[in-house]
Amino acid sequence: MLNLENITDRIRETFDNEDDDKALREILDSYHCADLAEILQELKPEERVKAFKAIDEDKAAEILEFLPPQIQVELLTDIGEENAARLIVKMPHDEVADVFAEMEDDETEAYLEKLPDNFSTEIRELLAYKEDSAGGIMTPHVLTVNKDMRVEDVLLFIKSKAEQDEFELYYIYVTDNQKHLLGVLSLRTLLTKPYKAKVEEIMTKDIVKLHVDDPQDAVADIFMKYQYSALPVVDLYNRLKGMITWDDAQDIVEEETTDEILQTSGISTELVDEDEIVFGSTVKAVKARFPWLFITLIGQLIASNVVNKFENTLNAVPVIAIFMPLLAGLGGNIGTQSITIIIRGLSTGQLNMSSAIHQIFRELRVGVIIGTLFGVLVTLYTWQWKNNIDFGIVVGVSMAINMSVATLLGAITPFLLKKFKIDPAIASGPVIATIIDVFGIAIYFTLVTFYLMKIM
Amino acid sequence: MLNLENITDRIRETFDNEDDDKALREILDSYHCADLAEILQELKPEERVKAFKAIDEDKAAEILEFLPPQIQVELLTDIGEENAARLIVKMPHDEVADVFAEMEDDETEAYLEKLPDNFSTEIRELLAYKEDSAGGIMTPHVLTVNKDMRVEDVLLFIKSKAEQDEFELYYIYVTDNQKHLLGVLSLRTLLTKPYKAKVEEIMTKDIVKLHVDDPQDAVADIFMKYQYSALPVVDLYNRLKGMITWDDAQDIVEEETTDEILQTSGISTELVDEDEIVFGSTVKAVKARFPWLFITLIGQLIASNVVNKFENTLNAVPVIAIFMPLLAGLGGNIGTQSITIIIRGLSTGQLNMSSAIHQIFRELRVGVIIGTLFGVLVTLYTWQWKNNIDFGIVVGVSMAINMSVATLLGAITPFLLKKFKIDPAIASGPVIATIIDVFGIAIYFTLVTFYLMKIM
Do A152 and A9 share a structural domain? Predict the structure, then answer.
């Protein structure tokens, strides 16, 4: 692990020593680009630019790839347009498109005019795709060969291309003259087959491919499922448009997981981008969190009305109020655990619809066991505390029922949503917890009214 | 997307038609191994074995890699030891070690004796490493070359190796005669440098590498950070022991994320493996969920005691109990949202300690804004409902304070844990929610006691 504090201190020291450039360069030289990205993020904005300017251009371009978009844009803006343009042409096309997508339209336009024509044309094409579609994620620089070439020709072709062009090497795609995708050659095949073998004879024709308009969650799913290190992206007519590599897919998987986690705790990722939920303005954060909280508010007002129906009971035995938070709290917690387990299982593929019944009963069993255990504990505690065994039993029984119902509801809801093709992650904890609250309170007050009031 | 229901129906039909093997094979032939793994999971165990037996051996071995461990073991056991042994030698070593790790020790031993000697020796070596360390995850089959070879020698060497050995081709590692790791050659370098170039001159000497004892969460972090498609694993003396590839790293990242998600909802992944939390026996599930729930129970009993302190207030104005779930519920929810955002931000690297103060204030602002908004709404609602504006104000002000404190606590806790080198994910929602409950109730009852009682 990096000792970030130590490193940033050493960098700051070089600034204090009348900008000791040599010492600064020495420090920066001794780290990997991914490390430098972490170090730069730890510095204050003005220190960050200063340090970034001291890094040589090739390395600086590579570091940018490891930084989050808002810091990429900040650095490029601060080093001046001329310097920025020089760095940008050294970055992979898909990264550049991501940076531009983060900028204002007129800024992007200004940069595009500064860049070489063929480069800016390709970037413009990428920007035309939706940012969160396969087209918006892919890199257009793919090595393509002709099916009539031989292995030795392909090897020579790669050597010749390497001198004039930046490209990532994962698979080699075989296309016809109109760029229709015909087959795939893995580097392993290329390196292990005889030099004289024809591409057509050794290529794979059963190709897993993506479509330019595929949404990013589908892209993530396909990568996770088939486990290829890169996949080709084609248009409607099967013409090869680009390629998505595993590291980009990895970023999407992370984004999609964040989405799922935020949604499960009732934060809407439909209205606000998940980056902005963490970083963005307070207004955006409020906008993302208000909707489900508001629904929870309505649910809790319904809970208040349920309690209100038992006004007479409450007036007769006010002490029962003491145990309301206990019941609501534990029911909500165990229910949320069930929701969390089922949603995560469904999203990793560990659970599927065929195991729904089995899994729901399993959760119910867990609820009954823990509920009964806690029910007994609470009965004993209340009996001791309030010196009233009947009261203890009412609280304990309510607890057991409430926790069991909570696991049942928590397990059923995600499966039900999935059955109706709704994303189970929106079975957000808060709302189910509120429903469990209402149930729990109703059970408790009913028991108090019909049992306790009779004997007290 | 696969229409799983449709495909499983068609497979079942072939079973009904006096085991129509030809039709079955035709269906199975038309899908990718990853698809077949999904299809097999959808079938009942006895159907699954029947279908699995109809698949030819090479493909069956590949399908196994896409299946979860418990189904791998089930299938291998059901097809008989002889057949299983033939499949196992076709699988990558790291996968085989994972399968054996899932079996009972004597079962593993029985299989190991059936396998070819050199194969079982290598597997035994892998099994000696801890399952969740780099050594337990890596594959030992790595292509190594000598630094004095030339590019053309390496190319010939790969061709000759391909005929006698299974290996994955990502990077080529350069070692000396004692297997010390000296450098790395990417396939890109190999394919683009002149045939006569010496390995020593073109290899990378600054190598990002893993140590056999690195725990799996460190492996996941290093992969996510440096974004290499494969990393070498060395022992204490820098001797190359194996390699971990991005698809294995991907699986670990998924496991670690599941861990984080479960922990955040108060499910202990220390005591029980996350697989078993989803699939395992009810006892295991109870064991994983009991501890934090028990701590929550104690917390909530403290909450009950706080309410009890205000017994006189409660007896004088029992109606105040009506709004207890409302306050506890919304405080808990908005607090959990804050925890979730901060924990996820810290784990993806979007947030770091240097932004702690900024982020805590941002959460507090969100809490104050939504709290004030909801406070006003609740004041108006209560005023209307109970025809008492003072009561309305007390409920509304409690709501605003409670939601603000909730965001503050939710934001501070993960940073604080991280500061003291504790995994922030254990800032489990349930416990913080309980603390927020206690706070909220204390504020509410204090306000009621000192303000409402005076004027009513």
Answer: no
